From TrEMBL:
Residues 29-367 form the Apiosidase-like catalytic domain. One of its GO terms (molecular function) is hydrolase activity. This is Glycoside hydrolase. Keywords: Hydrolase. The keyword Hydrolase applies. The keyword Hydrolase applies. Residues 370-460 form the Putative collagen-binding domain. It comes from the Bacteria. Coiled coil: none annotated.
Amino acid sequence: MMALFAACQSKGEQAKDEKPNALSLLKVSDNGRFLATQDDNEPFFWLGDTGWLLFTKLNREQADQYLENRKQKGFNVIQVMVLHTLGAKNVYGDSALVNKNVATTRVENGDDPNKPEEYDFWNHVDYVIDKAAGKGIYMALVPIWGSNVKSGKVKPEDAKLYAEFLANRYKNRKNIIWLNGGDIKGSDGLDVWQAIGTTLREKDPNHLITYHPRGRYTSSDWFHAEKWMDFNMVQSGHRTYAQDTSRNDKWHHGEDNWRFIQADYARKPVKPVIDGEPSYEGIPHGLHDVNQPRWTAADVRRYGYWSVLAGAFGYTYGDNEVMQMHRTDDTSGSSYGPKLTWDKAVDVEGAGQMIHLKNLLLSKSYFDRVPDQSLVADQGERYNYLTASRGTDYALVYTYTGRTFRLNMGKIPGAKVKASWYSPRDGKYTEIGEVSNQGVQEFNPPGEPKNGNDWVLVIDKV
């Protein structure tokens, strides 16, 4: 076991030297609310895509195609499972582990010594990570999916060896972010998650670490105070208001993912927070009944703007077919009733609209932005809810329904302010003009009020 571990260390270091990484490492911003580049302290707006099965379902040519598509759409983070199961094999048929034990990674010659070395599981992972780096994309890696730990198949001492392997193999690649956990409560296998988190921090002190929790939970429920936890991640989940019948009253929020962000934003010590898994585009409401309606582009936009303007430092998008890299020739099967293959689903409506959220936030002063619901004079509920955020010289207010609403003015300087409407659908502005910056002012978005007629009111200092 230890011989295998030592061998993988040297191979990982060699692979790094052969493929230097020009991206900057990431860090938590000085105020503890955002991410920034270590090299020049530039804002880093996390626009993530969920490519969970990328390493096991796609070959190199397909991985290149997927990553290029995401680069063109503005995504800069891919959330991916390293091991979905202990028996994980890549598309070339090569296994990740010996005897399905995380402590014995298969790194020499793979399953078949007659196959080219680049088809080996870990060499293929290296290739995809390096290809992503060349496109300016960071890889948010889940070491082991939570169901394997919950079932008792991973021991803390083995998890520690596995985390050492991962840290030593990838600590010199700059485009790595660690997502401990994997759709699981922290209390399910707590010793394992602590072993992975503390080992990654000890062996790889330069990369950010978080925890991907179960639906309708947040990493802060278990790990907020841990030294290895750099930022909190929420999974607001895939249920509608009516379907959220969880007994977890603390997080009984239905579709109101902004509530998770507000709660973690208020925690001490201050740490950044993000919704790392809201409802996916094209997936059935509640996941499991394929006869249910499907989440739409309008829904994923709503989750994005609601969470970011409530204080999140970025947003992770997901699509039903893409997250599982669905192919019609895949004999292992797929879940949740996919209707498209992954290569068609990468171009669905919502995926192309996420860049407008990123562009809007990066067009404004960045590190001074704070959530501020005191801007809203007539706060609505559920789909009529407005999220508001402001910087020193600007304010942003999102409406999902395009209803008329009123704002409390005077939150930014000046007797008058410049107002305009920003479309989350195409990123275009519609000018309103100068507006008095006193008292309460009414704003009427373009179009008739309805779900999905969403707009951002942009107010700028004159």
